[in-house]
Design brief:
The complex is a heterodimer of chains A (608) and B (448). Chain A is α/β, with parallel strands linked by helices and 608 residues long. Chain A contains 15 helices and 25 strands. In chain A, helix 5 (190-196) crosses helix 7 (305-328), helix 10 (423-430) packs across helix 13 and helix 13 (542-556) crosses helix 14. Chain A starts with a helix and ends with a helix. With 448 residues, chain B is α/β, with parallel strands linked by helices. The chains are: A alpha/beta (608), B alpha/beta (448).
């Protein structure tokens, strides 16, 4: 389709191809040209050969055709009277740099955007950005406005949350649930009571997995949870929280006939082969797992009551551990004290994080705002709340306000522990250039009409927050991408820059999109770009948060965004990270993927 | 002689008129029988006879055995009133009341006479000019005076060399009127295309020619205006081209002064009758007309009756429809898809087919393609084997630049009509979209 002058300018460095027949003598104008966005499809289908084609930026300065040529003809030197040399424009940009304020340079071909940040240091940054096929990508930033708005208000601490850490070195069974030094005892026989508390649960097995036993077979891991309790009468997100170090809860389960409680993949197998250790939502190497294997009634694995019962059954035991923690663990004797501060930075770019969580019903739900960290008591399922957006403070998120019931693909599900250590919330809270005002959770309903309903509410809520920018994150892929992109649209159409986070890559490529989806962080880590059923492999990691923040800052500074490559290319991400490191001088730690794990039979057979 | 059916709505626009005669009334040829109830023009009987019956949409008159060419003369205090009372509407297709159109209060403006006879295969406009160029010139002067124009431009396709030479001879003595030569491509007769070609002004789809200080008027309508003024003749007769699968060949049969309300069947019979198998009968041109029946009457706005070749049977293969503003609307394209026996799997709209408030579509840049390959990719994705398009010459050319390579078989909305009238099908464009205004310069730019 013919393009506008604006589009032609954006694509100044893309090949010039006629959209329609044009006659000799025609002075070339934007309307003569085909939209470069569809060239890859045309090249793929053999309709277009771009060899020798001049660029749009070279032929829109009075160039005339010397020959009558047909639709889809690339403009080459032999059919025009004259054309501009490449680089003419760049010279102009160079001159602009003389200005005191930082100035962004024009996008350059090759998947990156050049930019210069002045501020006396003259750092050259190139930040491209990656995305799954179909989505677009983000470009880079300039801190021009941010610097100008340097009415740097005082950093304001809204509130603090204190975590008291207690080191546990051993977990044993015993006559009562209690702590003795660094040993946690879990009452023998508690399984039967836990099972009796839930109609749908038929059996519960508790197994203590110490690091030497990581090569143990496990049913699919439904959740990984910190073991924590409120130290005081405070609500989640306030006051003091006690947490056990060195030990975590791992919920696993099947139905009576052995069907894994999971949808679109499950992570059953040897734990050491199916867990991306150290991910925010996973177990860290060296930790002891209290692994619960729940058996629920046949046929109940695919509807909410089944997985919910499994989670509550496990929480029956955890609740007893919490009780002992409250009674026995003295905050004064904590091994470590960590103070999490919710800070506001008036005058800095105000941002909000919208986290889409699964709420399709069936097995997909989340308990919101339990009384205890990642507990169940007092919580409301987001499906029952109608999946409407709900506001949370960053400290509530980090204090375990989400008990993740979701049973989507293991590689992209955000486990309960993920929220406890949510990297984007951490990064945004610590970034001195932005003012994080809070986190919005929104459920992903099953029906499209409901998806649009909740998306509109998200848009309105974000509008009222008067933010300068927003993140939208999601877990899983496919169905939830419909509302994911609609959230982005509803925020973006209000003139608010948005950056999206999702696993896309190869298998999860966005099936829908809109013009506001031009800045995306692909969270894929897997080698093949797939849901590889390795727990937490493709979830949001600190390196993703760093990329996202750089991208959102760029967008908020008015930078245009370089379009995504058509196919997933991990180099886009790698280049971005390198550029960020170059610009900031701080090394970004790269996380590994399933290739670092011992090869499992399943992976060998199905994926690699 | 068959009954004459005078439709109460004689064109595509406006409201139906209200009958002022009763069943059993004796009417004279030229007698006023229905008056406007809103936007519209009065309707006069095209024959003398007796009102046989009146339905919601028409007055049916049984003609007298002997018909005269005479008629009841219209009255009017001035030229504009004569045109109003004569019930003249635009004869290019839409049937907009001419008196309203030409009361334009232009400021030293232009009368652009559309003599492009843009629909392929039609011949009655050019034949009329060939037979009587003098009346056209007088008519332009009348219209110009009413509209506030001091210049007239006759837009005519360069291919009609002999007629243009006749016109040129007369125009040598007419300083206020000139002619503009058009290339032989579709759609040169689109109102805004005429403005662009003659005046170099590109109007938005929502703009009227008055925005370019001009009135665009079909040549046949200019004759009707002259006749209303000079002969006090109401618009009761119409020139018609009948063509296609007609016994005796595919040449055009031009009938001058056919009484409005005559049936399609009568016209086809006058031409010689249908020759063998046929696809459908189109009332109007191949691009903008639609399927009709043998019993349907012609109106003041009807220009042609085309009998088409039979439809190819696509045997329910997947068919995509590309709707543009220059050809049939979605209804017409769906009608054709059904007649081709294709399974409509995907519908695309030309990027320039801008939706108007009234639900119709107008092309943003008539005759200048915006590119079509994106639509073709979509058709391909939808699994289409065939596509049917209604595009202009330039857009059809663009479609052809990628569709066959993608394995899409292209049908054009006009194919079955073009086959029947012996005209090339609309596919690749091999002539230039512009012509030299010197009649003696031969221009023909072949694409290599």
């Amino acid at each position: 389709m013919s393009i506008t002058a604006e589009t032609a300018k954006q694509h100044a460095n893309d090949p010039a191809v006629l959209c329609c027949r044009a006659e000799a003598g025609t002075e070339l104008a934007p309307a003569n040209f085909e939209d470069p966005a569809i060239f890859p499809d045309l090249v793929d289908s053999g309709l277009l050969n771009l060899e020798g084609a001049l660029l749009l930026g070279q032929v829109l300065n009075g160039t005339k055709l010397t020959k009558t040529v047909d639709s889809l003809t690339p403009i080459t030197a032999d059919i025009v009277d004259k054309f501009d040399e490449i680089g003419g424009e760049e010279a102009a940009e160079e001159a602009a740099e003389e200005a005191a304020a930082p100035v962004a340079a024009a996008p350059v071909a090759g998947g990156v955007i050049n930019l210069h940040i002045g501020e006396g240091k003259n750092i050259d940054i190139q930040i491209p950005t990656g995305v799954g096929a179909g989505a677009a990508v983000a470009g880079a930033p300039v801190a021009a406005e941010a610097a100008a708005v340097a009415t740097v208000g005082e950093e304001k601490v809204v509130r603090e949350l204190t975590r008291k850490h207690f080191k546990i070195e051993e977990v044993k069974r015993g006559p009562e649930t209690k702590f003795e030094g660094t040993t946690l005892y879990i009452r023998e026989g508690i399984e039967a009571e836990a099972v009796a508390s839930e109609d749908l649960v038929l059996d519960l097995k508790i197994e203590v997995i110490t690091p030497d036993k990581y090569h143990t077979y496990s049913e699919t891991v439904m959740d990984v949870q910190p073991i924590a309790c409120k130290s005081t009468e405070d609500d989640l997100g306030y006051g003091v929280t006690k947490v056990l170090d060195g030990v975590v809860t791992v919920v696993t389960g099947t139905t009576e006939e052995g069907v894994q409680i999971g949808e679109f993949g499950s992570s059953e197998g040897y734990l050491d082969e199916n867990m991306m250790w150290g991910r925010p939502g996973a177990v860290d190497k060296g930790e002891t797992m209290i692994k619960y294997q729940v058996t629920i009634k046949n046929g109940k694995n695919m509807e909410r009551p089944g997985p919910m019962a499994a989670h509550r059954c496990v929480d029956f035991v955890t609740a007893e551990i919490r009780k002992a923690m409250k009674k026995q663990l003295d905050d004064e004797k904590a091994d470590d004290t960590e103070v999490l501060k919710q800070v506001r930075r008036p005058g800095k770019k105000k941002i909000v994080i919208v986290k889409e969580i699964m709420g399709q019903g069936a097995m997909h739900d989340n308990y919101l705002f339990p009384m205890e960290p990642v507990g169940t008591l007092g919580a409301r399922p987001n499906v029952d709340l109608g999946n409407v957006p709900v506001a949370a403070s960053p400290l509530e998120v980090l204090d375990g306000c989400i008990h993740a019931l979701t049973c989507i693909g293991p590689a992209s599900k955000e486990m309960s522990r993920h929220y406890w250590r949510e990297p984007l919330v951490y990064a945004a809270l610590h970034d001195e250039e932005v003012d994080l005002c809070g986190v919005i959770f929104v459920g992903s309903p099953q029906a499209n009409t409901e998806k649009f309903y909740v998306s509109r509410r998200v848009g309105q809520m974000v509008e009222m927050l008067d933010v300068d920018g927003a993140f939208v994150t999601t877990e899983g892929f496919g169905n939830n991408h419909v509302d994911f992109v609609t959230h982005i649209e509803n925020i973006g159409k209000r003139g608010i820059p948005v950056v999206g986070f999702s696993f896309c890559a190869v298998q999860g490529a966005l099936v829908v999109g809109n013009k506001y989806c031009d800045a995306m962080i692909d969270m894929n880590k897997s080698m093949s770009g797939i849901e590889n059923e390795v727990l937490e492999c493709n979830c949001l990691c600190p390196e993703d948060a760093i990329r996202g923040l750089a991208m959102l800052k760029a967008k908020m500074a008015g930078e245009s965004v370089k379009a995504a490559e058509r196919k997933y290319n991990v180099n886009v991400k790698n280049n971005n990270l390198e550029l960020i490191e170059k610009a900031t001088g701080v090394a970004v730690e790269r996380v590994g993927n399933e290739q670092d794990l011992p090869m499992s039979e399943k992976r060998k057979a199905k994926y690699d | 002689m068959e009954n004459i059916q005078m439709l109460l709505k004689q064109g595509a626009v406006g409201r139906p008129c209200a009958p002022i005669v009763k069943v059993g009334d004796k009417v004279e040829r030229g007698q006023l029988i229905a008056t406007p109830t809103g936007l519209g023009a009065p309707v006069h009987s095209s024959v003398s006879g007796v009102v046989e019956y009146i339905t919601e949409d028409r007055i049916v008159i049984k003609p007298d055995e002997n018909q005269s060419k005479d008629y009841v003369k219209v009255e009017g205090a001035d030229n504009l009133e004569l045109i109003t009372n004569a019930g003249i509407v635009g004869q290019g297709g839409a049937g907009f009341p001419t008196a309203i159109k030409i009361k334009a209060n232009l400021d030293h403006g232009y009368i652009l006479v559309n003599a492009s006879e843009c629909e392929p295969g039609l011949a009655h406009n050019i034949q009329q000019i060939d037979e009587d160029p003098e009346t056209l010139i007088r008519g332009i002067k009348y219209v110009a005076e009413i509209a506030g124009a001091d210049k007239g431009i006759i837009a005519i396709k360069k291919k009609h060399k002999a007629v243009i030479e006749k016109l040129d001879a007369l125009l040598a003595n007419e300083p206020m009127i000139e002619r503009h030569l058009l290339p032989d491509i579709y759609p040169m007769g689109e109102e805004r295309a005429v403005v662009r070609e003659c005046l170099g002004i590109e109007l938005e789809p929502t703009q009227l020619p008055s925005a370019a200080n001009a009135v665009v008027i079909n040549s046949e309508t200019v004759y009707s205006c002259a006749k209303a003024i000079e002969d006090k003749k109401p618009l009761i007769d119409k020139n018609i081209t009948v063509r296609g699968k007609i016994v005796g060949g595919s040449d055009a049969h031009v009938f001058m002064d056919v009484p409005v309300g005559t049936s399609v069947a009568t016209l086809i019979e006058m031409a010689g009758g249908i020759d063998g198998d046929f696809g459908e009968i189109i009332m109007g041109g191949a691009f903008t007309g639609s399927a009709t029946t043998m019993s349907a009457p012609i109106t003041k706005a009807t220009g042609a009756i085309l009998v088409t070749a039979p439809f190819q049977n696509l045997e329910a293969k997947k068919l995509g429809i590309l709707v543009c503003a220059c050809g049939g609307n979605l209804n017409r394209m769906m009608d054709l898809a059904a007649k081709y026996n294709g399974e409509v799997t995907h519908i695309c709209y030309c990027k320039q087919a801008q939706l108007q408030k009234n639900g119709s579509r107008k092309c943003e840049r008539p005759g200048n393609c915006p590119g079509q390959v994106k639509n073709n990719l979509d058709f391909k994705k939808a699994g289409c084997e065939y596509i049917i398009i209604g595009n202009c010459s330039d857009c059809s050319n663009t479609v052809m630049a990628s569709a066959p390579q993608m394995g899409l078989q292209v049908l054009h909305q006009t194919d079955h009509a073009m086959e029947a009238v012996g005209h090339d099908k609309y596919r690749q464009l091999t002539v230039s979209k512009s012509v030299d205004q010197d009649l003696n310069v031969v221009d023909n730019v072949e694409v290599e």
